[in-house]
Structures are given as C-alpha cells and as structure tokens.
Amino acid sequence: MIRVLLVDDQPLIRSGFRALLDLEDDIEVVAEAADGREGLELAREHLPDVALVDIQMPVVDGIEATRRIAADPALAGVHVVILTNYGMDEYVFDALRAGAAGFLVKDIVPDDFLHAVRVAARGDALLAPSITRKLIDRYVSQRLDTGAGTALQELTGREREAVALVARGLSNDEIADHMVISPMTAKTHVNRAMTKLHARDRAQLVVLAYESGLVVPRTS
C-alpha cells in the first residue's frame, strides 16, 4: 500500500487529489496539512511513502518543507513531489535542489497523476526529458556548482556515464540498452553513484549532472 501525505493550503485542491487517490486500491491518503510546518509534523507522525507538497504556502513554504524532510534521517523513505500551478515555476529547481523527487503541474490529467504517485513511491524521478531540458536550460546554466564537479571525481567512468544518461531522462532499462549491460548492472551503477554523491534519488542526480557540467545545457 502506497501511503500519501497531501500538503496544500487550498482545501479544494486537497479534496480533489484525495478523491482521486481514495479510489485506488493500492494508495492510501494518511493525512492532510495546510502548510509546510504541519506537513513536516505529519510526515514524522505517519512516515508516508509520498508527500505531495505545494510550493507556495503560509508559515513554511514547500521548498523549506522539502529541505527539512530531506535533512531528517527519520524521513529518508519519504519521496517529496512538488505541486505547482505552472510547469516552469521559478521555484521548481530550488525544490529539486532541496531534495524533491520531482514535480507535478496541478492541472495534470487524473491517470497521469496516479501514475506519477506510483513512480514517486518507487523512488524514481518525476522529470520528463522535455521538462528537464527546459528547466536546466533556464536555471542550471546560471548556477554552475564547481563543488559538484569535484564530487563526480569519486565516480568510475561507467558510473559517470550512467549518471549522464539519468540526466537525459533514461530509465534503467534504457541505460542498460545504451551501455550494453544488464538492467541490474545499470541499476547498480546508478545506485552506487547516488551513494557516492549523497543523492536522495534520481532527481538529485539530474541536478548534480548539470551543475557539475557532466551534461551541458542546450544553447538553442
């Protein structure tokens, strides 16, 4: 059973998402919060698999709530998915850097929303390649982090190659095909890279890959 926490200051939004989730046999909404501080408290109480968190909220906003969840070892199993009204919200990249597993636009169609919750619960990043490229082109090129490049030196050549492919939006199976290795070996490369880089999930690998210059944003 996938346990979900809803964190949004708009009751109508929470009710709409809850109505969709409650219809699914494999998903359970364990709690709702109206701001980030309450969301953090409920995350510690219920230990959900997925926390759907709005960016703009009173008291504690979604970015700070995400940062606090990511920093709490007791909440290591909580995958934060940011909810935004706009696909290119200027705060989305900050949320990814804070530890979010990905983001969803609030007008997403129901089937895609449910699929996204299941993807997040598995620990996969919710970053479609087209959205990733736009996001990176707009923000990452202005925020190059040389420290990230230093950290990548700890990776083997194959691990760096796997991280670059994750940043391009490839799944483990697609990485395996590209590198001519088994899916299990591809998963091992990705997991070892996450461990060495202290990344919570694949979304943070994407951020690190671009910030370090391992993958270069398009100029067009």
UniProtKB/TrEMBL annotation:
It comes from the Bacteria. Pfam families: GerE (PF00196), Response_reg (PF00072). Gene3D superfamilies: 3.40.50.2300. Keywords: DNA-binding, Phosphoprotein, Transcription, Transcription regulation. The keyword DNA-binding applies. It comes from Streptomyces roseicoloratus. The modification 4-aspartylphosphate is found at residue 54. SMART domains: HTH_LUXR, REC. The keyword Phosphoprotein applies. Residues 3-121 form the Response regulatory domain. This is Response regulator transcription factor. Residues 148-213 form the HTH luxR-type domain.
